[in-house]
Design a protein that fits this description.
This protein is an alpha+beta fold. Helix content is 36%, strand content 25%. Helix 6 packs antiparallel against helix 7 and helix 9 runs antiparallel to helix 10.
Length: 310
C-alpha cells in the first residue's frame, strides 16, 4: 500500500446559543480521521469507511467527504489523478457536533496536503461547505468553518463565506454532553417558527453583541449575561429529554452559560476554567444517567487549529 496523508478534523459546536447559523467553535475531540493516497487507478475513489455502522455511501457524489474532495480536484484540474480516500468516523452521527462537516473539512485538507498545498487552508472552505451541503441541503459554514480553520468563528454571511475569527479569552473551556438519543436535523429545523417577534429579536441581538464584546475584552461576566438564547432554544428544548434539568445542573456548577449544540441533542456549556468545565460535565452527565439515558462527555478548550495533518 502506498504511503498517504492522514488528517484529523475536529467536532464543533454551532450556533453557540446566540448566533444561530452564524457562530461556531471547534473542540479538541472528538473528530474524524481521513487518509488520502495516490493510486494507479485514475479518479477519486472512497476505498474504506470505518465507524459508520455501514450508514455512509462509497459513491463519491453521495458522500460528504467524497463530494467535497471531488469539487476541489475539479477546481484544481486534477480529476484524472488516481486518489484513494479513507474515512474513519470517530464521532457520533446526528449528535449536534458537526459530524458531516468534520468529514468534509478533513477530506479537502487531506487532498490539499497530498497535492503539496496548491491552496491556502482558508481557500478550501468553499469546497468543504459544498460537501456538507450533501448531508443537510444548506450552504452554511458554522460547523465546517471551525472544523477546518479552528477557533471561534463568526460567519457574517454564509453565501459569501465572509468568515471572521473571534478572540477567545485565556481559560475559556467548553463542556459538551452527548445523550444517546436521535434528533434529525430536518426535525430540528421543522419546529422553528418562520417569524420572530421584535422584542425577542432585539434581545437576541443584544446578547450576540454582548457575547462578542465579552470575548474580545475577556469579560466573563458579560459573556455569562449574554449567553442566553431567547429564539431557538425555547423551540428546540422539548426535543431533548431532560434538557432544562441538565442546563440547571450546569449553571449550578458555575458555568457561564449552557444551551443546545447545533441542532442537538448534545448540550454545551462554556466555563471560565477547566475545573468548572469538568465539574459541570459530571453534573450534566448525572442528570442523563439518572434518567437512564446513556451519554458521552467531552471537555475541551477552544481548538484554535481546526483540521491538522497527523
Amino acid at each position: 500500500m502506498k504511503a498517504g496523508i492522514k488528517v484529523f478534523a475536529p467536532a464543533t459546536v454551532a450556533n453557540v446559543a446566540v448566533g444561530f447559523d452564524i457562530l461556531g467553535f471547534a473542540l479538541d475531540k472528538p473528530g474524524d480521521e481521513l487518509i488520502a493516497r495516490f493510486s494507479d487507478i485514475p479518479g477519486l475513489r472512497i476505498t474504506k469507511i470505518t465507524g459508520d455502522q455501514g450508514k455512509l455511501p462509497y459513491d463519491v457524489e453521495k458522500n460528504t467527504a467524497g463530494f467535497a474532495a471531488q469539487r476541489l480536484l475539479e477546481h484544481l484540474g486534477e480529476t484524472g489523478l488516481g486518489i484513494e480516500l479513507e474515512i474513519h468516523k470517530k464521532m457520533p452521527f446526528g449528535s449536534g457536533l458537526g459530524s458531516s462537516a468534520a468529514s468534509a473539512a478533513g477530506a479537502v485538507m487531506a487532498i490539499n496536503e497530498l497535492l503539496k498545498h496548491p491552496l491556502e487552508k482558508r481557500d478550501l472552505l468553499h469546497f468543504a461547505v459544498l460537501g456538507e451541503q450533501v448531508a443537510d441541503g444548506a450552504y452554511h459554514a458554522d460547523n465546517v468553518g471551525p472544523s477546518l480553520l479552528g477557533g471561534m468563528l463568526l460567519i457574517r454571511n454564509n453565501q459569501d463565506l465572509d468568515v471572521h475569527r473571534l478572540y477567545t479569552p485565556k481559560g475559556l473551556y467548553a463542556t459538551v454532553v452527548y445523550p444517546h438519543v436521535e434528533i434529525l436535523t430536518k426535525d430540528a429545523r421543522d419546529v422553528l417558527s418562520a417569524t420572530v417577534a421584535l422584542p425577542q429579536c432585539i434581545e437576541q441581538s443584544g446578547n450576540l453583541a454582548g457575547f462578542i464584546v465579552g470575548l474580545f475584552t475577556s469579560d466573563f461576566e458579560l459573556i455569562s449575561r449574554s449567553l442566553n438564547d431567547v429564539l431557538i432554544e425555547p423551540q428546540r428544548a422539548r426535543l431533548i429529554p431532560n434538557f432544562y434539568q441538565v442546563k440547571e445542573a450546569a449553571m449550578k456548577a458555575g458555568v457561564l452559560g449552557c444551551s443546545i449544540s447545533g441542532a442537538g441533542p448534545s448540550i454545551f456549556a462554556l466555563s471560565a476554567n477547566a475545573l468548572i468545565a469538568e465539574k459541570a460535565g459530571e453534573a450534566m452527565q448525572r442528570v442523563f444517567s439518572d434518567a437512564g439515558i446513556p451519554n458521552d462527555l467531552f471537555v475541551s478548550p477552544i481548538n484554535q487549529e481546526g483540521a491538522i495533518k497527523l
